[in-house]
Amino acid sequence: MTEPEAVEKAAAPLRRVLVVEDDSVVLGILVKILTEAGYAVTGVPSGEAALTELDKQLFDSVLLDLNLPGVQGMDVLSVGPNMQTDTPFIVMTSFGSVDTAVEAMKLGAFDYVSKPFRTEELLLTVRRA
Predict the structure, then answer these.
(1) Torsion angle of alpha carbons 112, 115, 118, 124, nearest 10°?
(2) N or C end of the chain: smaller count of CB under 10 Å?
């Protein structure tokens, strides 16, 4: 890597990712994986907290669990893209079905990830977003 490339890489801002996951263990794992991959990660445990964060700051992508207590992931997905118009939303659930994936895509999801997921596949999806 040349010196200008190194300076440009060092000066590049971290891509901001919002992770919405109600399982604290899974949330911790996702935050760790994405942070180690070079992302600036904000992790929240609920749909309500996600909406608050989406209102406070801009994100480069959102990783959103669909099965949340209170405000569901689909509810966040139905308003989130209007709050952050250029932000891709990646939905994830362990209760996946083709119908759920189709509904999520109709609401504007960028992609759909089933849990459990492979780390490499998750990182590839976030990079693509």
Answers:
(1) 20
(2) N
- Dig out the tokens for 82 from the structure: 């209007």
9-48 pLDDT, tens digit each:
455 678 999 999 999 999 999 999 999 999 999 999 999 9
- Order of all β-strands in the sheet with 16-20: 40-44, 16-20, 61-65, 89-93, 111-114
Residue pointed to by tokens 């919002």: 18
Burial of 85 (0-12, 13-18, 19+ CB in 10 A): exposed
Look over the chain and give the mean of its residue pLDDT values, rounded to a whole number: 86
**Confidence band, pLDDT 50/70/90 cuts, at residue 1:** very low
